[in-house]
Amino acid sequence: MLKGLIFDLDGVLTDSAKFHLAAWNNLAQELGINLTSAQLDSLRGISRMDSLNLILHYGNQEDKYTSEQKDKFAEQKNEKFLQQVQTMTPQDILPGIFELLRDAQDAGLKMCIASASKNAPKILNKLGIADQFDDIVDPATLHRGKPDPEIYVKAQELLGLATDEVISFEDAAAGVEAIKAAGQFAVGIGNRQLLKQADYIVTTTKELKLDEIMAVFAKGPEESR
Ligand code: BG6
Ligand code: MG
After folding, report:
1. d(CA 11, CA 93)
2. Mean pLDDT over residues 22-33, rounded?
3. Which ligand lies nearest the alpha carbon of 73?
4. Ligand 1: which of 86, 117, 125 to mutate, most ligand atoms within 8 Å of CB?
């Protein structure tokens, strides 16, 4: 029986993913690396340092910088990202999300955030929805980033629920992979091809309807695909 929902943040509750990607693209260009759109897309859901390392890998610059220099680059990217976060308001909650959270609360479901972002609490405050969640996984406590299941397993533990009692929401391929590796029911939001591992896929958050998702969840992951 469904008892809880677990949400990625960037690209699911709000479109902060575009700010992350713009800030990374900016840094990459400063380092003389031109990312293709597929390379840029592959950064979705990936932790800060893993993203930087991936960019340096794409630019064949893996061994070019010391770890101090890399820390500076990551800090530089974060400052750019935070400038955008400052402009965020409740208007930046993606379409359909407010209703989804309201319906989940009415249904008595517990809710947790499973975001790789250290800025998640700040963003939730700007959106005015921080108090709607029972828990937020602290990414600093994690050993491995998405697509490793650790963050989704942790979220489920924080809620005190079993694998078959939760539904998890993601916009990133790495995130859907993490949810499935955790053995949970995955809702993918975005490109159907990229997110094909998910149990339920919508193109945009507007299409997220709790009763419809719950009906598919009730059938079990195998039959729903
Ligand atoms: C994820 C984003 O939620 O958080 C990634 O999808 C981002 O793009 C990662 O790199 C880490 O975020 P932050 O805010 O800690 O740099
Ligand atoms: Mg995301």
Report:
1. 10
2. 97
3. 1
4. 117
